[in-house]
Write the structure tokens for this entry.
Amino acid sequence: MIDRFLHYLSTQKMAEAQPRDWLAELRRQGRERLKLTAAPTTRDEEWRFTNINKFPTEQLGLHQSDRQALTSLSAADRALLARVRDEDATIPIIMVNGFLVKELSGSPQWPGGIRLSQVKTSLPSQGQEQSGLVKNASFRTADPFLLLNQAMMQRGIRLEIREGFEADRPIHIISLYTRASRAMVSSPRNFIVAGRESKAILLETTIWTGNFFSTDNCVKHLIMGEGAELEHVQYWQGHGKTYAISHTEAILKSRARYRTLVINGGSGMSRNNLSILLTQPHARVETSGISGLAGSGQVDNYSRIEHQASHTFSMQLYKGLFAGKSRGVFRGRIKVDKQVKGAEASQLNKNILLGKAARANSMPWLEIDASDIRCEHGATTGTLDKEQLFYLSSRGIPTNQARKLLLKAFMAEAFTHLTDPWLRGKIDEYCSSIFEQVINTHFIANQEGNMR
């Protein structure tokens, strides 16, 4: 697999390195490290339930490197974008095939407390900061997708929420993937900076316009200043030929509060890597996930939270709904440093399996070096409660509607910590789409099979 990645990289037309071009240097370092990296197998703990050899590297081929060609939209693409962006209620940021399209983003009344810029090859101060974040993330792991992102780094975006600013509308980053080439690997590297005492809501929606092979291999670096608050939701809606690989690294300073939710509604393979460092006292993170698959895809949620300071708090809650031959994997790691006091940490993974072929694997991991702390974890896997379904049906509620109500109640716990009404409504819309897909492909298909 690594050999195919390297061959793919050799076909790409990268921009020639210029003096002080830190992006080109990081790409070179990523490529060199990739050459020295062995492809992970199911014998490796972090890939125990994921056969990476199923990733269709043979489909990788030379794709268009012309940004203008990659960001051109058809009438159907623009219609889909118009339905998703909800411009009156949000501050939209549009990315097409991994590239920022400024003419489709924002509005003439862009809020003064938010700054959006493209990551450039040479920035005297920001370039050094961003280069350091990339190096620290890459050297902590030999994840081949993280190194592939570094070796292919596109310019990406830098989103800054300035000190003391409170956004009056959610920021909505829409990543649209179109059939711009026969084999697409997108590698954006985005930086999000929440200034001291700032407050904002961020929704990232990733959608594909057709059934074509595509890989979204995105890395996000998030820095939260003292007292900053951010609600962050990431949503993917793909299909059997899409591969969504997401790495999110967050650094929280004193009193920062980060509430995050990842939602996956289907793809060939999804892997959500979340790394959070609680570096100063009273930093707080609440992270959750919702997954719903009905075919033969797989979603992996891997989280690592490090309590590096006293009186910090973390909560992890991941819910999964798996039908057909789909599989869900959860691996939550909590690390508490020796000097830490008064920290609280919890993690819980709950899954519903529909059908004998569906699978869910949970791997809690606690690494506790301190004594004055409170940590807990748990995991459950079961099926839809038949008694509750019978009770609702006996009250005159149609069976399919009763199923949706039960599934909605099961998933709702994962986003009760999010406070914005518009955002909760959007999540409810996304979850309803997932329930509809699962019910149609599992229950209705089984009923038709029994009738035959």
